[in-house]
Structures are given as structure tokens and as C-alpha cells.
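Batch manifest, entry 17 of 40.
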Amino acid sequence: MVVEKMDIRSVSAPKFSEKLYRSWFMRKLVGLSWWFMNRLDGRRDKKICGFSLAKYVPSKFRQSMGATGSQATRYWILEDIFQGAQFSEDDRVIDIGCGKARVFAYLTEQGVRCHMHGVELNEEVASIAQKWCGKYPNISISSGDAFQIDYNDYSVLLLGRPFELPMLGRFIKKLEQELTRPVTIFIWSDQETGETLDGRAGWTLNRRGWVFRKRGLWVSRSPQRYSVWRYDPT
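Output type: C-alpha cells
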């Protein structure tokens, strides 16, 4: 798999005033953007999946396992995260905490046909993904614990904030202890988790960027950072 590199030194956060965005006017304006984008995303979902994936599902395992809720990443954000990414037919992709699997809907829309597997802790959410993914022979979904998987079977790992930060640290250690082959890892929201990897042996940052406003609309309530890494255990 090839990921187009960029000069990470040139990446800076968008201008953001927390005080301004907490104001009544900005909350309404951002809320209007979200209302509009939920409908745009829902239309794209229906073309690929047959129904909308937009509804947020809170986590039942936040306290016990540090798992986050299921919030489908916006298509406009996914466009930025995967810009320049090229998947070969031999790649094997796993989405850790895949939720309703909108990432696979986007990749399918873009013509990616390699094997893609999603693991989701919440059985109810996993069943939604299984419902639409069943018509795509290259996509499979399972419900289970991401810590019980052998990631040597995969070349690309997707981490759309499936864990709270302490649990992410444990997961990174698991990868470092068990991986015997290089992997490419996409992470978002990276402003909360990316520093976990900065400076670690074997980890190379290929690309890092921000998403906040696109096409005149707010895709998030604050700037969201993503990153693309290569981990080589050798």
C-alpha cells in the first residue's frame, strides 16, 4: 500500500477560538451545518448501504473497557484522511471499532476492492454493519474484543478513536509486542492520540493534517487532526 507523503512541518491547526464557538450564535450555525451534512451523508449511505448510518450510538463499554460510542465519521472528513492513499488487491484492511462501517462505505464508493474486516465491541452496532456489508463479498464484520485479534493478518489498520486514551496506550503496546510485519495505520482524532506515537521506536509519521471547515460548512465542532503512520517492527 502506498500513502502520498506531505511535509508534516507545514501542518498547523486551523484558527479556532473556543470562546467564540461556545457562543449561542456559533452553536446554532455549527448545528445548522451538521443538520445539512447529516442529510448529505445519509444520501451517500443510502446509495451504498441502503439506509443511513448517521445516528450516534453511545458506548455500553466506556467504563468497563474504555470503548467510545459509535459516531459515523463524515464523508468529507474521510476524503481528507484517505487522500493520496492507494490500496492494492493484496491489502487486508481492518477497522478497529468499526461502528456501522461507514469507512468501508466510503472506501467502497472510491473503488477499493481489497479484503476489509471490521471488529465492533457492541453487538447491536455490529449487526447494523453486517446487515449492509453482507452484499459486498470483500467486506466482513465481527463482534468482539479488538485485543483478541492477531494483527499480523492485516496490512492496514484503521483507528477512528475506538478507545479512550489509556486503553489506546495498551493497544499500541500490544501491536509493538506482537506484530512481526510492517503495517500502515490511519488514526483520527489524532489531536487526542497522536502524541502516543510521536518518537516511539519503529513508528514513522507519513502524513498529518487537520479538518475543521470544508466547502463553507463546519464538519466538526472544533479542529480535528488525523495522521497516517507506518510501523515496522524490524
